[in-house]
Design a protein that fits this description.
InterPro entries: RlmKL-like_Mtase, RlmKL-like_Mtase_CS, RM_Methyltransferase, SAM-dependent_MTases_sf. The chain is an alpha/beta fold and about 280 residues long. The chain is built from seven helices and 13 strands. It folds into two domains: about 70 residues; about 200 residues, Vaccinia Virus protein VP39 (Rossmann fold, 3-Layer(aba) Sandwich), CATH 3.40.50.150. About 30% of the residues lie in helices and about 30% in strands. The strands form two sheets. Strands 6, 7, 8, 9, 10, 11, 12 and 13 form an eight-stranded mixed beta sheet that branches. A hairpin with a 4-residue loop joins strand 4 and strand 5.
């Protein structure tokens, strides 16, 4: 059965998510609208629609609306959760959901384990929990972990939360991890523009150390959905994602890179990268 999927937010990112979950790229048939054949009919459509973060509406081929996202539910998770810190970054829930789905691909999330090594206030954990993933979160900041726990409780979700250096998780993690989705530490807020090149270099070293360590406990075939900051200074871009080409990360295949999104007037762009352990 064929359906018309209407995506919102960043169309390129939403299409990437839709394609990853479908396992194939749907055909564009209109503005922000894509046609996909689902062998499971309405049942599969409802499952996919409730899972996707970038989806707004679904119509049948006769133009009848058959599904619409709940703006109220997204607003609750974005604006009404008990803890947030604007100085630590505020990842939109829809982007968090899309990042989790990009890591999972066509895999059924129920019962699988998702790790966020830089969980902060728990936005990625919240979206993973609503998808029935088992959750493990880690952060160096005890206040952030406390806030993450409050936000999880707000939605009736549970997670194992840890307080370790993300570069040394292999020394402490006992759980088997199927997927990682994370927006890592991006530096202190208010960094002077002329120091952004040095910040990008330092963060690159941090991310390289993390990926080397995570390789020690990830299963073969496990995927990582990770956001890498891109800084601009003096007409030049400084990409922290360049480290994924390092020979020390030869045990990873690169699935997606180069797709960026940013809010209007943002100083930092965010690049979506998907890696898979060989």
């Amino acid at each position: 059965m064929d359906f018309l999927f209407t995506v919102g937010f960043s169309e390129e990112l939403a299409l990437l998510e839709l394609s990853a979950v479908l396992g194939t790229t749907p055909k564009k048939v209109g503005e922000h609208q894509y046609k996909a054949h689902l062998s499971g009919g309405h049942s599969q459509m409802n499952y996919l629609s409730n899972r996707l973060g970038g989806l707004v509406e679904v119509h049948d081929l006769e133009g009848k609306l058959v599904w619409r996202h709940s703006a109220k539910a997204w607003y609750k998770r974005d604006r009404l959760k008990p803890y947030s810190d604007i100085h630590k970054g505020l990842l939109p829930p829809k982007v968090a959901r899309m990042l989790v789905n990009l890591a999972l691909g066509t895999t059924d999330p129920e019962g699988k384990t998702l790790l966020d090594p830089f969980c902060g206030s728990g936005t990625l954990l919240l979206e993973g929990g609503l998808m029935k993933l088992k959750l493990v979160g880690n952060d160096l900041d005890p206040e952030q972990l406390s806030g993450s726990r409050r936000n999880l409780d707000f939605l009736g979700l549970s997670a194992k939360l840890m307080n370790y250096d993300a570069v040394k998780l292999s020394e402490h993690l006992k759980e088997s991890v199927d997927f990682i989705a994370t927006e890592p530490y991006m530096g202190r807020p208010g960094v002077r523009e002329d120091r952004l090149p040095d910040l990008a270099k330092g963060l690159g070293k941090l991310y390289l150390g993390c990926l080397k360590d995570w390789n020690l406990f990830l299963k073969s075939g496990a995927r990582i959905g990770m956001i890498f900051p891109v800084f601009e200074y003096a007409g030049r871009e400084y990409k922290t994602s360049l480290i994924i080409d390092d020979t020390k990360l030869i045990d990873y295949n690169i699935g997606t890179r180069g797709l960026t999104y940013s809010l209007p007037a943002a100083r930092v762009k965010r690049e979506i990268v998907i890696l898979e352990k060989k």
